[in-house]
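FAQ: What does the model actually see?

It sees only this:
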Amino acid sequence: MRRYLLVFLVSLVSLVVLGQDYMGGAKWIGAITRKDARIPEGRHYQGAVLKESKALWAQADTLSRRSIILRRSFKPYKPFKKAELRICGLGFYELTINGRKIGNAEFAPMWSDYDKSVFFNAYDVTNLLTYEDNEIRVLLGNGVYNEQGGRYHKMKISFGPPTLCFLLYVTYEDDLRERLISDEKWEWALSPITFNSLYGGEDYDARFEVKNWHPVVVQESPKGQLRPQIANPVKIMERFPVKQVMKQQGDTLLVLDMGQNLSGYPEITVEGKAGQRLKLTPGETLNDEGFVNQKQTGRPHYYVYTLKGGQTELWHPRFAYYGYRYLQVEGDVEVLKKVESCFVYNSAPRTGYFECSNQLINDTHRLIDRAIRSNWQAVWTDCPHREKLGWLEQDWLNGEALVYNYDCKTMIAQTMQNIVDAQHEDGSMPEIAPEYTIFTGSWAKPFLESPEWGGAIIALPMLYWQHYGDLSLASQHYDAMKRYVDYLDTQDSCYILKQGLGDWYDYGPGRAGFAKNTPMPLVSTAHYYQWLCYMYVMAKHLGHKQDALQFNQQAEHIRQAFNREFYDSKKKTYATGSQCSLALPLYLKLVPEGDYQAVLDNLLKDIHAHGDRLTTGDVGNRYLFYTLVQNNQRELLYKMLNHYDVPGYGYQIKKGHTTLTEQWDPTHGASMNHFMMGHVENLFIPDLLGIQRTGDLIEIAPHPVGDLTWCKGSTMSAFGEVKVSWKISNGQFLLDIEIPEGGFADVYMPFSDRAETVQGGKHHFQEPVRR
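And it is asked to produce this:
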């Protein structure tokens, strides 16, 4: 195995030697200081940038946003046994030693609020160093660290011009160590990347000769604390060839269907003359004339490649990506010999597998999973084009979908660091983390804080504990979690919260957006109650007994206020009687004792009144689906989802989409690659297949439904992979399971009261089908 692959935690010995000075005295270096760069301060949302602000950005030195290369030579003076380096290149870097790229990560290091945390990477390069002169080169791009615009940009934000901090430790065979750090001895030069913006694209001139090397300047270090990057790197994980040519205009234009909507960029192979050029414009959809359409996803975003000539050239962007299915190629099209779409997403190991006899369910699973992958970058983004921001609600509302299909331990831990970094001094939580942009204007208040979004600071440690059996995140971030519920306590009015987004993008007449079916205060207050319940349980297990008592008392006050404000005891309904209005209190057990069944009946009536279709959105879906499952209404839920009409996942499949769309009705535009509505994925492995994990505990409880005749899949437990396969044949339900050695599972059969505990190994169960 190649020893230069990325490692995420450097050795304990090195950490002890260096303490918290991870970079051993290395300096931050680059081409220009922040002072000379004249970069404006602040985090500017692009829709609210005033003329004065635009003028300030225009004054920034062009060198401050230019991609540069830094270099240094190093020659070991005697035999060595180990070489390890640590690097942080901001915004993004690509490191080579003797012309060979180190690691296989894209967009490294991972994004953060650089005023709070700055992640670095560590590599073992023992097998790459020679005993001659070794040339170390670092290519730097802007990333989110230095988003100055130029084309499309969601916001303008800069923590400074591109910068590098570098440390190489060489351990010789006699155990002596030599250190090479970033300092004044390095040099810099302009790179062939003439433009780069995470939001706007990238231009590369292969004719450009890297020369005119200059001494580096020592820069002001970022304000944030250096931390090891613990989450898995983003990589090129899949490749897709051209599916079909959609449009061609002579030798000057091609429109290509790459077959799959994804996050990434094109990779091209070209042959031609020096100076010939291609412009590549990616997009999710085509307009009426058959050209690529970026109207809903942020425009313009494109890539320009200028040929060196006289050879076969292979290229893809280094520091920009987009969400797209179609690719428009303009210019000297005859030079194009090959093009592929590089699907770029987080390399967290896949831990789950699911398949069943219903093709629509399988396609829905694939639709959601591809959207999850597309939006799994350094953070879980909302979309891979228009915003690329870490909106927080989807991380926990779709939490089971994530943890049953992927190993999320390091990603959740690093996400929590971003969340805690984003928390404000008063304890409030923004809706995005890192908080790269602050929305302003009279319209912006609902987008600044909402309990369903900010509550991720509590929900993610709870998910981590429930699934992995690990309370460490709750322990580590307990003070921040408590500060958040204490803040909510200052915002309520008689225990009712009145801020937030509510059931965002629910389904009904008119344009999707703010909730139209359910009062926002009902949704916000219900989540306030849920966060206090979570805090009560976690505080109790962490030994914070007095806090637990206070959380429990506060939750009871909110429960009573919630019912006073929203519950109609005569009609046995809440607020508007919408599906979200009823599912939330049912799921959270807010309903007064003795009225539960009546409220549930009203929920079922509303579903039937809508033709057995849902009306919920980004928040309400989770509670609707789980409420139906908890009350043995799986047949109804199956009916609500097993169709090709709107609203439903099948409608998106019918329309040819390959990733989950932002709206239930994708014909209304907006993003075609969001995973926020993918809540049904929470049920596929834990409920339909029937594998549930709670820490070390494994429960097998399959739930055949509808016309399903078989289902098979797996997920990881603390002891290894758990496999389940069930089928219905000749009136018999047949269940085969495989439990890893050292583990055990409680098995519950679906058509009887039979329950059994089994140990590691393969087991077979059978019983008659009773509907």
